[in-house]
Design brief:
The complex is a heterodimer. Chain A is of the alpha+beta class. Chain A has 8 helices and 20 strands. The two termini of chain B are 29 Å apart. Helix content of chain B is 69%, strand content 2%. The chains are: A alpha+beta, B mainly alpha.
């Protein structure tokens, strides 16, 4: 049996004239924290709504545990959703909100009470049962929304940018907490976000999307260190993306200078995109390969961010040390910091 | 600039057209003509009102208004729901059709039903044409209690639809998604989410139908041919026929107090934020 709990097979979906997804396929692994990452309008929310049952695909199939659920209404699916703007029921208190799913299923009242208090404890809101949802802060409301979904013990939890409305500090706290909850319960989380940091922090697997297509699927480390194309490289973290020529296997020419690298399998003299992370650039006043001048220096807390103009290119360089503005420096890169990508046609 | 002055025109307006007339009504209502023709304080007219004859009229008015309100709610709620549904095509046309009768004068609208409903009217002619009625037969629609209630429902239905529509169309759709997601089928979504959240609109609708219905005199006198006397008709006659302004004012006061009381009885929905008043 495959390890996929959800499979999308050749899904197409359009709204009016606009094709959001076209012949889109993906498998979501069981028990994993999977993040769908992409800019707004890339089709990630549509994908989530298709899985949740709020949209029906024009074509294609959605499988849950190998079973076709394509035309199953939301209320019959064994998964729950945490919505972007919480979507709590304003006419109910915290208890009734969280108990909603179980009440519908006509679970015994005593069991409902136990389960609600259990799940409120899980989201650190014990004792909030009688509060009205209006009296809660954004962070608390979001916890209630998560509790309301989790109390139904879904096999898959869908989260649609649930932390988008929270401030930075709260968001970081909630990220860790969500990851902890997921690990504890061992269920599948499908998390949609446009925030790359969020994706890297929590996920077992990241699916990077753009224009309705999967750009890359892999662990956060792979996605960050081995971006498969220039889009992924620029979307995940900051990158210097510069034209290069692959002279032969393991040798690339950047800005007229030859560098050793770890990539092969390109045509001889094939033009390529070269991606180098800002923190991977070495600079030195004496030694190095590409001469340049420091243009600006910004202090960012843990590191400095410099703009260095070299070979007609504006390099972003991050380092814990710095050279003052106007200094002439030489740039150099280690072979394993040079990432070669095929040019996108 | 002192912003309080912005409200001056409104205050002047309501002084002249609301407060002063109310005071005049109260003055007449609490006085009676004495032997020498001057007005003196008296509760005589209240005593006169609280007799079976006039209490019966009040009861009938309240009953008719209540019946029309219930019918308006039963017709208007589904209509508002359909109008507010997300994937309704031609929504603006439908809205237009509901609102357009309100552009016409109530008397005109009601008189036009006279010509439609009378024995030689369009509806009876049509029924004869399709053979439901024989050649000489006709249905007596007019000059009945049914005709009055029909007229009330027809005239006040938009006032039920619009506030409910307004609340429903403002409802956050993701809340309905959330209910479905948590296992609620269409019926449960309605019972547990849509309906409770639309209650403020229902209250507004009830108020906006019940109050004009209980005070109307035009609809009842036109469509019943003066067969049905509601409180509005009786008050009108005191002023225009009986020339007893004092008793007419007393009845107006009682009616006002009755309406106030019946609004107080209704659960306090208006305090709950998103009341559906739209006018």
């Amino acid at each position: 049996m495959s390890n996929a709990i959800i499979e999308l097979k050749n899904i197409s979906k359009s709204f009016g004239e606009e094709d959001i997804l076209e012949n889109f396929s993906v498998e979501i692994e069981r028990h994993a924290f999977v993040t769908i990452l992409g800019p707004s309008g890339c089709g990630k929310t549509t994908m989530l709504r298709l899985i949740g049952g709020f949209e029906v695909p024009d074509e294609g199939q959605i499988l849950f545990d190998g079973e076709d659920i394509t035309s199953l209404p939301p209320y019959k699916r064994r998964l729950n959703t945490v919505f972007q703007k919480y979507a709590l029921f304003p006419h109910m208190n915290v208890f009734d909100n969280v108990a909603f799913g179980l009440t519908i299923k006509k679970v015994d009242k005593k069991i409902i009470k136990e389960k609600v208090s259990e799940v409120l404890k899980l989201v650190n809101l014990s004792g909030f049962e009688k509060r009205s949802v209006d009296s809660l802060s954004g962070g608390q409301q979001q916890r209630i929304a998560i509790a309301r979904a989790l109390v139904n013990e879904p096999e898959v939890l869908l989260l649609d940018e649930p932390l988008g409305a929270l401030d930075l500090k709260l968001r970081q706290e909630m990220q860790l907490e969500l990851k902890k909850i997921q690990t504890k319960l061992g269920i599948t989380f499908i998390y949609v976000t446009h925030d790359q940091e969020e994706a890297l922090t929590m996920s077992d697997e990241v699916i990077v999307m753009n224009n309705g297509k999967i750009q890359q699927k892999g662990s956060p480390i792979d996605i960050y260190n081995e971006p498969q194309n220039a889009f992924v490289a620029s979307f995940i973290g900051e990158s210097n993306i510069i034209d290069g020529i692959m002279q032969k296997d393991f040798l690339v020419e950047i800005a007229g200078t030859e560098f050793e690298c770890l990539d092969k399998g390109f045509d001889d003299n094939e033009p390529v995109d070269v991606v180098i992370r800002p923190e991977d650039i070495k600079f030195d006043k004496q030694n190095g390969k590409i001469p340049g001048v420091v243009n600006s220096v910004i202090f960012k807390g843990v590191h400095y961010e410099m703009r260095i103009t070299a070979a007609d290119f504006d390099w972003i360089v991050q380092s814990t040390t710095m050279e003052p503005e106007g200094t002439e420096v030489y740039l150099d890169f280690y072979p394993n910091d040079i990432h070669i990508m095929k040019k996108v046609k | 600039m002192n912003r309080r002055w912005y409200s001056a025109p409104y205050i002047v307006w309501s002084l002249i057209f609301v407060v002063v007339p109310l005071l005049v009504v109260a003055y007449y209502g609490l006085t009676a003509q004495s032997a020498d023709g001057s007005l003196e304080f008296s509760l005589e007219n209240f005593k006169r009102f609280f007799t079976p004859l006039y209490l019966g009229v009040l009861w009938r008015s309240a009953l008719y208004a209540a019946i029309s309100t219930v019918i308006c709610l039963l017709l208007g709620y589904p209509a508002a729901m359909i109008l507010a549904s997300k994937d309704l095509k031609h929504k603006s046309v439908m809205m237009f059709l509901i609102v357009i009768p309100m552009w016409m004068n109530l008397l005109l609208r009601t008189y036009s039903w006279l010509t439609l409903l009378e024995n030689q009217g369009l509806i009876n002619q049509f029924l004869r044409f399709i053979g439901v009625l024989g050649k000489e037969q006709s249905i007596q629609f007019l000059y009945s209690e049914g005709a009055v209630i029909f007229g009330m429902v027809y005239n006040f239905l938009p006032f039920m639809i619009l506030p409910i529509y307004s609340v429903m169309s403002k409802m956050d759709y993701s809340i309905i998604n959330a209910a479905e997601d948590l296992g609620a089928n269409k019926f449960n979504v309605f019972k547990k989410v849509t309906f409770p959240l639309s209650i403020p609109g229902i209250y507004s609708g009830i108020t906006m139908v019940f109050v004009p219905a209980i005070t109307t005199f035009a609809i009842s006198s036109i469509l019943s041919g003066n067969n049905v006397n509601l409180l509005g008709n009786v008050i009108e006659k005191q002023f225009l026929v009986g020339n007893d302004w004092n008793f007419g004012s007393t009845m107006s006061l009682v009616l006002m107090i009755f309406i106030l009381l019946s609004l107080v009885i209704m659960p306090d929905s208006e305090k709950e934020s998103q009341g559906g008043m739209i006018i």
